[in-house]
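Sequence decides. Consider this:

===
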Amino acid sequence: MSGPRSIAAASVLLLAVGGCAGLPPARGDAALDRADRLAREGAWAEAAGAYGEYLERFPGGEAAPRAAASRDTLTALLAARVELARLREEMARLRDDLARRDSDLVRVRQEAEKLRDDLERLKQIDMKLERRR
């Protein structure tokens, strides 16, 4: 079978094998690259999701430990941002409460001073009445 048919069959076989070699490997490099790009761009929630997708598709992949660490780090970062926002809101609420209490304290001090003055006047009046008797 060393005729034109053999050459054609060998050519088809080489094209088929060569064509497969040109395809990207199924290791998930593109998925991991996408997740890395999203993380670099600051799209952390999307990046964490992309790392999770990579791990679902390639749990035993060579880059799986790095992808898991990146996903876990981004998840922790996102949780910390949510907590930070909550703490900022709480701090703003506490500042408002403190400002109200400070204003109440000023008002109470003013009232106490007025009562001291009134008490002093009453003492003076009482002393005048005592002298008249």
